[in-house]
Every structure is written in structure tokens, then in C-alpha cells.
Amino acid sequence: MACFPSGKSAPGGYLIFSDRNRSELLAIKSCRQNAFLLADAQWNGPKHRAYPERGVVELERTEFAASLTRRNRWYGELARNWYETVTLEKRETKRMKKHTQDLIAEAPRGCSQVGITIGIDLGDVWSHYCTLNEAGEVVDRGRFRTNPSSVDKWFTDLPRVRIAMEAGTHSIWISEQLQELGHEVIVANMRELRAISHSNRKSDQVDAEKLARFARLDPKILRPIAHRTVAQQEALTLIRARNLRLRTAAVNAVRGLAKPCGYRLPASSTLCFAQRCVAVLPPGLSRALGPVLHQIADMTVKIKEYDRAIKQLTETEYRETQALLKVYGVGQLTALTYVLTLGSKERFQRSHDVGCYLGLRPKRSQSGERDPQLGITKAGNVFLRSLLVECANHVLGRHGKDSTLRQWGLSLASRGGKQSRNRAIVAVARKLAVLLHRIWVTQQPYIPFYAKAA
User: Fold this and answer.
1) Cα 153 vs. chain centroid, distance in angstroms?
2) Do the Cβ atoms of 381 and 264 come closer than 8 Å?
3) Is the pTM of this model over 0.85?
4) N or C: which end of the chain has fewer CB within 10 A?
């Protein structure tokens, strides 16, 4: 806080300039001489007195001397306050700089000093690696076979190092194996790192070096992802093996092969498609398409076996899915896929982040006043996103049970427009993703009309 003589009051009166009013303080600082001249002009002390009866202006020497003494004292106060203000600001600036230097000095040294860093470009048969020392120099390059024995051979005897790799087919089991060996493993999200995936000089050796250098500089650049465990991946493989697309493709192939011969197969569900087609096909087509129809019937039986295995998993190993099954439109397949894909309920601090993780939020490309409306990002797991969209379609369909979520989705769909229903389905799917995570975390029962219950 700075203090200056007032000029309108007797010597000893001051104007108070707070730190918030910096403009006046800087104006006086930049014009020191003008400040003294202004103070002299505003001084109201007695300087002379006119005597009209004598016709001249005579100075009162005694009063003038006293006024001069007071004015000099005032200038002394002004100079002293000026010096104190400048000194105070210099000290404050010096203290702020010293505080910044102290913060830098007190920063953990481990954040900037990185030891050995290894980047691995995973391949189906061979994986290439690049090793950087503490100074960021390449000290080793090479490759190893992509199998567990080779990983143990190359990384067992190493001290704890930082290893970066890209997300891929083999990154799940390799990252888990390297973590068991005591290494720091970073799995990069290559969708967010176009410097590697869209480079014009892309090769396995160059990609491995880039991964190592990014991991050495700042691991957050790689946008690390959290892999599920191998056990969770095995359970998820059971769901993926229940592939309905193979049966659908076979059914469409039979229909397409029968049309050139003048036969149109009857409409039916895939559960009884093979039996109905065998009964109506002529002998010539029956000999050609009979084996395919038997394969369709076998796939139907296998799919039912997979459904029973999935139901058993939800009742034994993943009992937390029972709370998710209470949500209207969500079945055992969607609930188990949801839990296995996310891996852990503690992975997200906020339930709203799950919708963004699954690519159900709109993309954005804002620049200046331009902010167009774009589609969803479609990031994350495609299979789980498609299941949530199917659940949302059921919720908004004619067989969907009434709930607050259904009413909200139907209100969005009724706004009109060509894509209004599709947008409503995506919005309900995003709401379902958030709702399922919240129920998973709290394990509270699902309330269809939450607002009315509250």
C-alpha cells in the first residue's frame, strides 16, 4: 500500500492508494517530476498577501518563511513516501521471483530425471524396441519374437525401467507380463497420437524410437489407457465368440442364392429359419443349400450354449451385474460386456465420463465464431457402443417399458427433423452408459421414475 500527501489537506494528510488501484500509482511512478510540480501547484499554503491600500504587493517574510518550511517538509514527506513505495514494490517483486525459484527448486527431481526408457512397436510375429539412456541417446535397438518366452528372456534381468508400447492385439498380455517383472508400463492410445500413426516416414524402428522419446518427455502425451486383465479378456472372448453375424451372413447367403432360381424363401426368425427352408426348398436347391442350412441350425444351438454360459458368469463370477439387469432394456449380454469392457468401477471418477469414453459424445471443431454441430466421436469399444444403442432402441420402441428415461427420449424424438429419432437413440444410449456406471458404483436399486420417487 502506498501513501502520498494530499495537497488539499494540511501537511501530514495522505491519500491512500490500494494495490487494486494500480493505474494511479503507475502514472505517478512514470512521471516523478510531474508529481512534485502537481504537488506544488496544489499547495494551499500562504505565499503572499495583497495590500490594496498601499497599491503594491508585499511579502510577509515571516509567514512566507513558515510556509516555505512547511512546503519543504511536505516535499520531504513526498520523497520519503516515494522511496518507501518503490522499495516496497522492489521487495515484493523480488519476493515473488524468489518464491517462483523456490517452487522450481522444491519440485521433485524424479519428475525431470528419467532413467532408461524403452519404446516397443508390437507386431504379430516380431516386435521392435528402442532403448534411450538418461541423456536421451539411443543406446540399443533390436527386435524379439512376440511370445511370452521371448519377453521373459529380454526383460527379466533388466532393472526397473519405463516401457512404452502402443495399444493393440498383444498389448494386454505383454503389458501385464512386464508389470509382473517390475517395470513401469505405459500403453499409448494411438488414436490420439497422429505423429506416429499418420507419419510419412513410418516404420517399426522409427515408431519404437518415437514411443520411447514421448515416454521420456511426458507420459501424458501418449494418453495412456488402462487395460483389462487377462481373466477379464478371456471372459470377454466368450462373448465375442457368440458371433451372431456369422449366422446372419449365412442366412442372407441362402436367400440370395435361392432368388436366381426363382424361389423366394419365407420370412422367419433365425431360430427356425433352417427348418422352414428345408420344408419348402425344391430337390435341386435342397442338395446345394442343405449343408448351409444344417450349419445355420448348428450355429443356433451353439449360440444358445453361449447364452447359458454368459448367464452363469453373471450369476457366479460377476455378481455385480445383477444390479445392472434391473434397468429396463438391459440384458445379461449387455451387463456383462459393460462390466468386462470398463474393467473396474474405480476407473472413472465421474459417471459422466463413461459416455465420452464409449464415443457417445458429439465431436467438436470450434474456431473463432464457428462452432458447427457434428456427430459423435465413435471412440472406444465399438461392440459395447452397439449394444447400448440396441438397448436404447428397445427402450424407445413399442415394447419398451415406461420410465423417466423413455419419456425423455421420446420427447427428444418428437422435436422433428430427419435425424431426430436417431439422435434420441444415441442420447438415450449415453444416458444408459452413465446410469449403469452409477448403479455399478453405488449398487443401489434402479428406480424407473427417479424424479417422482425423490
Assistant:
1) 36
2) no
3) no
4) C
CB 424 within 8 A of CB 450: no
| Alpha-carbon distance values, 72 to 97, 199, 433 (Å) | 37, 75, 79
For residue 445 the three cell numbers come to 436399486
DSSP 167: -
Measured CA angle at 80 (ends 74, 86), to 5 deg: 135
Name the strand (E) or helix (H) holding 117. Answer: strand 117-121
Helix axes 230-241, 283-315, angle to 10 degrees: 150
Residue 294: count of CB within 10 angstroms of its CB: 12
Residue 91 has pLDDT above 70, yes or no: no
User: How much of the chain is in helix, strand and coil states, percent to nearest 5?
Assistant: 55, 10, 30
**Integer Cα distance of 126 and 142 in angstroms:** 10
Cell reading at 226: 488402462
382 sits in which H/E element: helix 382-396
Contacts of 245 (CB under 8 A, 6+ apart): none
Those residues whose C-beta lies under 8 Å from the C-beta of residue 112, and which sit 6 or more positions away, are none
Q: What are phi and psi of 353, to 5 degrees?
A: -75, -15
**22-71 per-position pLDDT tens digit:** 444 444 444 444 444 444 444 444 444 444 444 434 444 455 455 556 65
Residues sharing a CB contact under 8 Å with residue 176, sequence separation 6 or more, in sequence order = 227, 229, 230
pLDDT one-digit tens code per residue, 200-220: 888 999 999 999 999 998 888
d(CA 426, CA 371): 21
Identify the sign of the CA torsion 143, 145, 151, 152: negative
